[in-house]
Amino acid sequence: MAERGAAPKVPPLRRRALHAVRSLFTPLLPDDYLELINPLWSTRELRGRIERIDAETPEAATVLIRPGFEWPGHRPGQYLRIGVVVDGIHHWRAYSLTSEPDRPDGCIAITPKLVETGKVSPYFVRQARPGDVVRLGGVEGTFVLPDPPPRKLLFVSAGSGVTPIMSMLRSLHRSDSLADAVHVHSAREVEGVIFAERLGEIGDVHEGYDLHLRITGEEGRVGPDDLDRICPDWRERHAFLSGPAAMLDAMSERWERDGDPELLHMERFQPVIGGEPGEGEGGRVRFLESGVEAGCDSGTPILVGGEEAGATLPFGCRMGICHTCVGRLCKGEVRDLRTGRVHGSEGEMIRTCVNAPEGPIEIAL
Amino acid sequence: MNATTVEVESPLAHLSEERLEELARELDEIRDRTFADLGERDRRYIESMIAMQRRLAVMGRVLLLGARYRPAKIAGTAALSMAKILENMEIGHNVLHGQWDWMNDPQINSSTWDWDTASTAEAWKHSHNYVHHTFTNILGKDKDLGYEIMRIDPQQKWHPVYLAQPIYNLLLAAFFEWGVALHDLDFEAIRKGRKSKAQVKRELAGIREKAKSQIVKDYIAWPLLSGLAMAALDVGLEARGPGRRRGGLAGALKRALGGGRSSYRAAASANATANIVRNVWAYAIIFCGHFPDQTHTFKPEEVEDESRGGWYVRQLTGAANIEGGPLFHVASGNLGYQVEHHLFPDLPSTRYAEIAPQVKQVCERYDLPYNSGPFGQQLWMVQRTILRLAFPGGVPRPKPGPYRREDHPAL
């Protein structure tokens, strides 16, 4: 099954009304006809209409999107799976939300940076027009501002790594809690600074916001030892790091060595699921459609076990977001490898990429 | 006379292993080239086809609210029949083949699609996409050769029950979707115990569910709406009308109820007609795909260790095209290009017309036939075969020779 948008927050009355008339439309849904009038009315998946596109730099643009139903909200720093059609094909990508969760106009924003060889970012930066419809998938990510936000903050970002931090800054700005924040942001060249103007404006309004802009093409990269000079009290601050892996590695090593790793937050786009046997018992999986049987230990997702046993299974993000890998559970129970929760009843659709069997199971895949 | 002694020369007899390999490579190239070219234009086609079909269905349903008026009934039945035909043929059959899966669309996808017919998508994908398209025209293996109830090839053994086949042929045409749904169960597999009881039960439950939703939709819900709408109309007209009101409120209600009942019946019968029109059309197109005289059938021993080239030749000679205009091809789900469909079952149907000239060229260079004929002729051949083979005996009809372009001058 191909990835689709998140289930929208449909008013209950509307959902009930649609449900009541569905036998008139079977095997389709009333949705299939309503979508002909307005694609945003789909209650099957959340969609959004592009309202505005603003160039941030020659290679990055902020895309403002109005969701078809009330935005369920996100935490500043989280990212969104978003689906677009490029040359006839649906593509899905994850982009950090750059808007604050509670924009008064109900819109959300992402700020993709062009990847020349990519499919989706060239669409957003060059091709997309207001009025285009996009699909809005799940909101995920643990790189978030704690609630309530800490008083003393340090942000370290580089390049497009500034995008989740922008959402945090906007949220702090809106709640007027930007009292003491140091922001070290690097970009290769002056023209390439995403949100240069916004960040300047925030600095103008909030005296407690101290922006250090580093143009690495001229001044070289910010290293872990620069912290002592730029922000001598960095050890006392909740730090949020977002940027290339090399920067994250170098910086986090400093926190490990002579800081408090508890105060360090980093953006990790690809959490590693499974791999190590943990709690639970694992079990044998029977894939009913492909006729394959596989053994999974307690740390092995059903998807991985099946693939290793030679089954061709649908997969997508491999991190529990996109629901591409779902299969109907016909027998047994599974354990969610992210939370440890044991669940599953007959007929339930389960994500094979983040669930391990808990005892023998059968799945219709 | 024993019919099995009559032999038709195998269409691949003249091709060496190497030639077959080259043939496979050429056909693979056509496939790869076409797949690489799929994009926005194809997506626009299927999306607008689906949108058009749904508008047509809405139009038909709305017209049939007034089914008690003859012109509305005729126009509504026509629109609904056409909508059902498009939904089954150009949309359902092709989506379920995975022809549009490359779009990665969550809805227009073989894994999520369901259609307005008696077969469940799951059963259909097994019996049609897998069994029929893999073992095409192999006697005893392709269950679609006569659907296990008809003798359609002289090499199939005669049984007295086939004497009745001209009659149940007509019944099958009218109730084709139900025949196909039952056929999907694969009686041979059930008889021989190759299917577990649980699976048979699940499949029967699937058909029951499909039957229920069709009955509720076409024979209860929509007719009821029509009845209610017309009863409301009658009450409204009477209340506003200047004439005398006979029998007071009770009389008016009684008349409205009568009007509603006749509307219910008219709408239900219109829906039944639309279902039967769709069934007969699907039957005609599908029977013309493999049963006309030109097509070859194969014995299991002929296809042992079949190469990819051999598979292509079997698909090529086991199917027959139907000639017609663009509207005909859309209404038949592009199964008028049965040959191209059987070579590349998961290629979007819109591309069949485009690659047909390339396939013909291949046929010409490899001295292979390209089976094709006008609709009337093909249907006549099929009916003649069904009549003839109801009786014992029968010989294979002569097969066409290699395709030659000069025999088919451009129009």
How does this structure look, described?
The complex is a heterodimer of chains A (365) and B (411). By secondary structure, chain A is of the alpha/beta class. Chain A folds into 3 domains: 12-140, Beta Barrel (Elongation Factor Tu (Ef-tu), domain 3); 152-266, Nucleotide-binding domain of ferredoxin-NADP reductase (FNR) module (Rossmann fold, 3-Layer(aba) Sandwich); 283-364, Beta-grasp domain (Ubiquitin-like (UB roll), Roll). Chain A is 21% helix and 30% strand. In chain A, the strands form 3 sheets. Chain A has a 6-stranded antiparallel β-sheet with strand order 4-3-6-1-2-5. In chain A, strands 12, 13, 14, 15, 16 and 17 form a 6-stranded mixed β-sheet that branches. Chain A is globular and about 60 Å long. The termini of chain A are close together. Chain B has 411 residues and is mainly alpha-helical. Chain B has one domain (3-193, 282-407). Chain B has helices spanning 17-37, 40-65, 70-96, 121-134, 165-174, 176-184, 187-191, 197-240, 248-290, 308-318, 326-331, 338-343, 352-365, 375-388; strands spanning 321-323, 372-374. A two-stranded parallel sheet of chain B has the order 1-2. In chain B, helix 2 runs antiparallel to helix 3, helix 3 crosses helix 9 (248-290) and helix 8 (197-240) packs across helix 9. Chain B starts with 16 loop residues before the first helix and ends in a 23-residue tail after the last helix. Mean pLDDT of chain B is 93; it is low at 1-5. Classes of the chains: A alpha/beta (365), B mainly alpha (411). Chains A and B meet through helix 2 and strand 4 of A and helix 2 and helix 8 of B.
Query: What is the helix/strand order of chain A?
Result: HHEEEEEHEEHEHEHHEHEEEHEEEE
Instruction: Give the strand content of chain B.
Output: under 5%
Shape of chain A: globular
Give the uncertain stretches of chain A in residue-range form.
270-276
Biggest sheet record of chain B: 2 strands, parallel
The CATH C-level name of the largest domain in chain A is: Mainly Beta
Instruction: Give the termini separation of chain B.
Output: 44 Å
